Structures are given as structure tokens and as C-alpha cells.
Amino acid sequence: MTTSDTATHTQPFQAEVSELLHLMVHSVYSETDIFLRELVSNASDACDKLRYEAIESPALLGEGDALKIRIIPSKTAGTLTIADNGIGMERQELIDHLGTIARSGTKAFVSKLKEAKDGLGLIGQFGVGFYSAFMVAEKIVVISRRAGESDVWTWTSSGGSGFEIARASEAEAARVARGTEIVLHLKDDAKKYLETYEIERIVGAYSDNILFPIELVPEEGESRQINSASALWQRSKSELTAEDYKKAYQQIASAFDDPAMTLHYRAEGRYSYAVLLFAPSAKPFDLFEPNRKGRVKLYVRRVFITDDADLLPGYLRFIRGVVDSEDLPLNISREMLQNNPQLTQIRKAVATRVVSELEGLADKDPENFAKIWDAFGAVLKEGIYEDFERREKLLALSRFTTTSGEKRSLKQVIADFKPNQTEIYYLVGDSIERLKSNPRLEAATARGIEVLLLSDPVDAFWTSMPAEFDGKPLKSLSQGDLNLDLIPRLDAADEAKKDEPEADEAATIAVIKAALGERVSDVKASTRLTSSASCLVADSQGPSRELERILSQQNRGMRTKPILEINLRHPLVTAITKAQAGSGVVDDLSLLLLEQAQILDGELPEDPAAFAARLNRLVLQGLG
Question: What gap in Å lies between CA 543 and CA 540, rounded to an integer?
């Protein structure tokens, strides 16, 4: 052991930690109770980790007390101590865990914390709960001995720019035989947390279902257990109330919203396991992280194994809760988690049950299902693209904004089909507002056809695959050919317009093609347009224009040349036919058809300066 290991060592906090502590110390929360929930939760995790490591190394548990958490208030000293006899930390672990935040979401958390009016629900979700103690403490001392080690270390900080690491005194080392003791020197305005009734209230509200006993050790009187310390998911549904489930959800998910859906059951048969899952009513911070990691915890016979077992497919990653197996081996490794056939069966069965529960909720409790859809609809739609087996069910669950209203189901859309309509029509874009004014809607609008307006990025992906619902194919209004002639128009006057004179198709297309050259792949007469002059569409065999746009933004593909569709009855198009072939006017009008179609799609013309000059020329010619 080197001298530097034994001497007191002062070290600055990581930059993000300093910023975080500044926010904590300056009271970003209207309620500060959360600190106790977070420290108790951390202590529980430490006990879980020791119990798991002891599967392979039983000596780590030794012959000491059973795993537990103690809360010790001292009015005399003005301190509140939270102690556990879990895994503990050695010197470098204290520095790594309490001096830095390695988690990728930290900067996003600090940003959200600054913006939040009351960030009560953010701390636990971002895994920075230890630092919440600085809301109530002017100084924190952490004393820790890692299981199986003889050295005991102290970490001390007053929430300023850094912390001190030193070897523990003999008295401190004698107190901590194994695990961690956190001593909070409370601020004057936080002394209420030394009252036993306050501690019992907070533990009862947030930590009752922690699996380890939580003992309250008052200055006077005997210590007593103040939580139920039972696995709620192992209890019968008949024993539990809605409030029990709410508390369990908030403790398991580190959340403060109410669950929009609760699923609690026990599977018996070839494999036995208990399931307690919740659908939140508010988005968690990490919903769209690239790794799409789930947050369902895997237990084996009440022993926590991991929260990284991918127990549900990625499109159900918003689900929180617990799966507790009676049959899996306790020492299951990460490699075994990926390939274990029993776990594969559990994954499949649980995912099917969750989707079925969502179906039941949509039918029986539309209000709560709407909360789930508002928060997680874009995530659920990932399953339409990824999960062929459940695609029809996920399409049935989906709710859409359409030209007829919001939160419309495909069943409702089909029920309102027009005479001779055989397909479900949709349009994909980057915003509902822009889609509502898209010229590609014109032919459908003239016939009163309801069109799905799809603006989530995932919509460009799942619509790239052939899909149908209830035997009705889904058809894009921006891709391939479109023929709505068999569906009658709503207005007889519109119907009569079909007989109006139009520009000569072959001659007009030839002139426009010559003017545009390689800018487009083709020019066609449009059946989509009734009042606009032009629009851009994609070939039926390739990707949609919206999918190409998304992929090109991510440098994952080149954009193909679009097809320009023209409205042969529009004055701008007929003007091209009447103009002298090869003249500057023909070129200007042809380019204007292309560029206005690009603008209506939310794109810039290829050469904005040339577009402005061209438009000015045409306006001046009209004025002259």
C-alpha cells in the first residue's frame, strides 16, 4: 500500500457533478423527501449486489447479521445516518461512484433540472439519487468497507468543489464491519427529518416494498422494522389495493406519476414465474436512447439478478416492473441470459401478455389507454416494423391523427370507408400541420376519404413494408400510382371538372422533361391533384421520400431523384404548353413547378438564389 493510499486525499468533483450539486444545494425541489427514498434505494441495491456475488463466493456474507438497512436519527449530533451491510465500496469505488457520473444522460438531466418547475420526478430516473442528500445536508460523511476487505475508507464533502478520501478511524472502522454508512449533517431547516414519525412516513410512502428489513434506531427506545420487506409481486392480487400497486410502481420505477396500467399475475406450468409490470403515464427521460434498453428487473427466487435481461422487446421498453423466476439458476451469466431457452419462453409469453393487456385496456378503459398512447405511441409503432407476429395487434392498438380527427383507430377508419374504397390511405411527413396542407391530399379530400397523417419518424420505417389491416392494404398517397376514379366525388361540380379541357399530356410532359433534365426521374400526369399545379412522389418500388430524407440526415443513404406529377388542368401547366418550346419562359415555368413542389414538401430549392431570380422574372412579366 502506497503513502498516497493512506493519506488524506482531496479531489475535485467532475464538472457535471459540480453543476448538479449547485442545483441541489440551491433547492430546485419544493419537496425534499426524495433524498431518503434514494439513499434507502441505494442501500437496497448494495444488499442485492452482495447477495448476488455471494452466490459464487459465500464467504462474502460471512457469519454477520442478515442483510438489512438501518436509519439512525440523532438530535444530539444533528445527524441522520443511513447504513447497510451490503457490498460496500473500496477506495477507488468511492472516488468513481461519488465523485463522477459516468452515465450518459447526465448532461440531459442537468438541462432538464434547470428547466423544470419542480424536478421531483427526475432524480431517481437519472441515477443520481445520492446527490439529492445535499438538499438537506450541509456535510456528508460516507464510511465504507467492501465485503471481504479489511480496509475501511471515508469520503467527506460539504457539497462544494470537491471531496476528501481518507482511511477511517478505529472507531469508524469498528462501526462498519461490512457495507456503507452515510452520515448526513443536516441543515437547520432539515431537522424535521430527525423525527421518527417523519422517517416512518417517508419509508411507508416510498420504500415499503424494499426486500430488505429497514430498521429505525431511535435515540430512545428499541429499534424496530418500519417496512413490510416483502416481495409484493409474490402476494395474491386479492391482498393488494390500488394504493399498494401505486407505491410499488413508484419504488420500482423511481417515478412519481401514477401507473396507467398494472399487470400482475403468476404463470404456472412448465415454468413458474411471477410478473408485476406497469405502464407509466409519463415519459421516462431515456425513452429514445439509442440502445433502447428496457427497465424490467429480473429476479430469481426473490434474488435480484439484473435489470439488463431484455425481458421485453425494444418497442415495449417503457414498461417497468419485475419478473421473478422460480426455475432459473441463481448464478445465471450474461451469456446465459442471451441464450437460455427458458428465458426465451418467458420473454415471448410476457410480451404477448403485455400486448393483450394493452388491447383490453384500449377497449375497457380508453382514458388510461390514451395516456399510454400519448406518451408511448411512437415507441409502440416500432413494433409494427419489428414484430411481424404481432403486427396486426399493434396496428389495432395504434391511434392516428387523420383528416377526420384525432386518436382514430384503423377499425374506425375502415367503418367510415367511402363507396368502392378498398384501401387505407396515409401520408407521411414531418409535421401534422404541413401534412394537412399537402397537395397530395387533394384527390382524397375531394372524395371525403379519411387519410392517416403520420408525422413520427418511425412512421417512415413501418410504412416502408407492405402492411394491411383487416384485409385492407395500406396505401401511400406520396408513392407509386394512384387511381381513385371508382370513388365518387362529394361535389357534383368537382365531378364535372373532369371534362374540362386540359393541356396536351404528351407534349407538355416532353417539354417539362426537356427543361428539367436530370433533376427528376420522370414527369407524369397526376391523379392526386385537383387544385395545385404539381407535387413530388416516389416510385412504388423504392423507399418513400420521407424515409430517404431521414436516412440522408443520418448519412445512411443517397436520395434518389423524385417523380414530378403535374396537374394538366392547372393554368401554370397549360401556360407551358402555350409558350414557345425552348424559350426561357418554358424553362422558368418548368423549374417553378419543381421548386414549389419541393417547398411544399418542406425542402429548399436546389439553388435558392436562382429560384428567387426566376420568380422575380415571372412576376415582372405578369405585371408587364
Answer: 8
Closest by CA position to 232, among listed 282, 274, 273? 274
How many residues can be counted in the chain? 624
Cell of 229: 420487506
Are 567 and 530 contacting, i.e. CB atoms less than 8 angstroms apart?
A: yes
Q: In this predicted model, what pLDDT tens digit does every residue of 356-403 receive, in sequence order?
A: 999 999 999 999 999 999 999 999 999 999 999 999 999 999 999 999
Instruction: State how far the Cα of 580 lies from the Cα of 583, in Å rounded to an integer.
Output: 6
Predicted model pTM? 0.74
The whole-angstrom separation of Cα 594 and Cα 597 is 5
Distances (CA, A) of 305 to 190, 278, 296, 298, 583: 36, 19, 11, 6, 76
Residue 164 three-state SS: strand
Name the amino acid, one letter, at 577: T
Which of 109, 183, 105 is closest to 143 using CA atoms? 183
pLDDT tens, residue by residue, 572-592: 999 888 886 667 889 999 999
Provide the pLDDT for residue 52.
Answer: 86
> Is 155 within 8 Å of 163 (Cβ atoms)?
yes
| Beta strand ranges found along 503-595 (DSSP E) | 522-525, 534-537, 563-566
Closest CA to 144 of 153, 135, 136: 153
Distance CA 328, CA 300 (A): 6
Q: Which residues of 224-254 are buried (b: 16+ CB within 10 A; e: fewer)?
A: eebbbbebbbebeeeebeeebbbbbbbbbbb
For 389-453, the DSSP string reads GGHHHHHHH--EEETTEEEE-HHHHHHTPPTT--SEEEEE-S-HHHHHT-GGGHHHHHTT--EEE
